[in-house]
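hey team, just a heads up i'm posting the complex here instead of the shared drive bc the drive is being weird again. everything in one block, sequence lines first with there labels, then the predicted structure for the whole assembly after. its two chains so it's a bit long, scroll down
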Amino acid sequence: MILINVLGLLLIALIIWWFWLYKPGDSSVSVTNVSEANISGGDIVITVENGIYQPSRLKVSAGQPTTLTFLRKDASPCAATVIFPDSELSEELPLNKAKAVVLPPMPPGEHPFTCQMQMYRGTLVVN
Amino acid sequence: MEQELNKHCDHTPDDQLEHIRNETATLELLIEGASCGSCVAKIEGALKQVVGVDNAEMNFAQRSVSVSGRASADVLVKAVEGAGYNAKISQNESDEEVLEEKEQADQIYYRRLMREMAIALSLGVPLMIYGVLGGAMTVTTNAERAAWLAVGLATLGVMVFSGKHFFVGAWKSLLNHSANMDTLIALGTGTAWFYSMVVVFFPSVIPDMARHVYFEATAMIIGLIDLGLALELKARGKTSEAIKRLIGLQVKTARVIRDGEEIDIGIEQVLLNEQVRVRPGEKIPVDGVVLEGHTAVDESMLSGEPMPVEKVKDDQVVGGTINKSGSFVFKATRIGKDTALAQIITMVKRAQNSKPPIGRLADVIAGYFVPVVMIIAVTSALVWLNFGPAPAVAYAIVSATTVLIIACPCALGLATPMSVMVGVGKAAEAGVLIRNGEALQTSSKITAMILDKTGTITLGSPKVTEIHLANASDENAVLQMAASLEAGSEHPLALSIVESAKERKLNLEPVEHFNAIAGHGVEGTVSGKQLLFGNEKLMREKGIEIASYIDPAQAMAEEAQTPMYLAADGSLAALIAVADPIKEDSISAIQRLQRNNIRVVMLTGDNRATAKAVADKVGIKEFFAEVLPEDKAKKVAELQMQNEIVGMTGDGINDAPALALANVGFAIGTGTDVAIESADITLMRGSLHGLADAIAVSKATLRNIKQNLFGAFIYNAAGVPFAAGLLYPFFGLLLSPVIAGAAMAFSSLTVVTNANRLRLFKAEEH
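-- predicted structure starts here --
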């Protein structure tokens, strides 16, 4: 019985660590900035599938417009809209079709992008 | 992923590979310079040689080529350029196409969910009926073990076929250190199934009484949640009805006049400044200015203005509105993404996805929600194991499963965006464009509204309102003289005199010896008559007898009109009153605001007497007169100091600082200037009723959001403890996981349905 209780508490600790305390290493992907005129999409495609953005941490340069290309493979309506709250921008993502999203220049810092319900989450690291 | 890309590059030196994406997708290129059929093969060939391209197919008629594969767009464009043509990426997919595609995708997804639901329930329902009818759900004999093993495997099939998306989603997000609804469903159903399989395979490790299987719960929960998702998908479709209607207003073809001939072309081919013909009953394709013909246009779909608007030469017409009576030709001044309709659609879409501050708390909670529920589930299981009655293991499993299943982050997450979506769309239908969620929320709390006088309460274009004859005998003759004299003047009041003369189709005579006397008026000779036109001061200085006309002039001033004296050859000919007429429905709109307990304040640069006259006429008690344009913002600040939540209404041009400073800035558009930068809310119709409409819609939306948030909070706050078994010690009540699954599936559906109720909202009749 004690063993089970210890295991249960360990499980709780694991949940807390895994979801909240864990700090991701620098696994973010750099996005090359493209000029505003060329909105054909950067080289990185963010896949929207199975509840996550992949990759979900992206590095972009401050003070320049950025183009992100999204490819939504998840038919669920949750995945259909991507929102950049800091830029007051939202885009509908078509299913199985690349969609380029042009973001205005952003100040340095971390800017989230999410689905409507914040279940899909990603971060733009601007520096 | 970066490493993965680099790895590719190490193996092949081809620099094209740097531009390989790791996903296959279809890109659409628009080709310029392709003039003959043979170009097709050349372009397709050039594209197919690009590394990463699977296929390239050109549609010659549309000058477009669709390229599938993994090559990036830049490389494709370069390849086409290399072949001697110009190419650009087609971002111009029409809103309608995007919408259609989305609906098709939704329809496919809906059918898939329904199919998965049917499979899951066809196993779950019989099992549940068996259980309810008293069938043994326990494992004691070997025969039972074999039978339950078969059921267990069938349930596994259901989990794979109908619930795969939950499990894959849960796993992927787990690896990503995030958790969502999938996590909860996968854990809940997975736990129930896994425990049941342990009972089947190793009954001896479980106490006698706890050898219960829960396969029916797993199958039922998956089925019910799939059903909930499918119904939610349908309900969500309705929330975007308003934007669908706007998109539907867009015209597909236009009849342009090229080289003297009228030809029908696709809307995207209309050029700027091109002449476009519109026949009666047709929709106007793009924005422009009428060149010839006259007609009445129904603009209700854009501005909410119910009456058709007369259009003559030089009037503006807006794409998407309907030409009622006459045929006319206009010059296209805004096309494509620049048209008012396209801008409205963009603005509404953006606003629909923005979140009012009230939703932020829910977002913060949603961020922590799932892990917290997981912790509660483990805690609940531990409490049951330690303190629960026998069979403690079974109770622990049931409570943990139920907690995981009943918790619904979706209801919380959907509460705000769904209502905003419907509310903003509803406002757009009434000709009210709300910039974002914050503007929506703040307008519901407005306590004071400042109205700029000119152009807001009044029409903004002074007109001759009255001609009081003195020694002259004909109004038209008087007006003709005054207008001829003023034709060379630049004074705004002069302009109104000339306009009025034109409206009466009077011919202006040439003027001689014209002289403007600053602060007084003008003098000159028209048709041999020596004319003086100006204020009382001018008349007195020139010795014109006006004593008996002081009273009528005074009466005009009290009526908010500006009196002007016209003298011909030394005697007074007439008094001409000029005024900026009050909009027809300003009075009723202001009353509507006041009925809603909003303090209405008028702001004007005019002198006190005129300001008071206008304020009295429209029923405004407070006003600021003689306010310089640059001081308007100070007046906004003044009211804010009195703890008012201030709305400021103006034309959005010379009062931008005041609009920006106000808690909510309203700009009165002219029907075409839709995206007025400084405004939080743009009223497309000139009427002030838009203000009351905007406030009413935002109040209704906020009420709806609150209901949703309250419902979602209460549901989770009550459901989770109930599922954990908090009521068991007192009432012996423990929730079944199947009921929890049903409750969860329908909680988010309820939120979407409640948001859809807003569609029925109707602004007060006016």
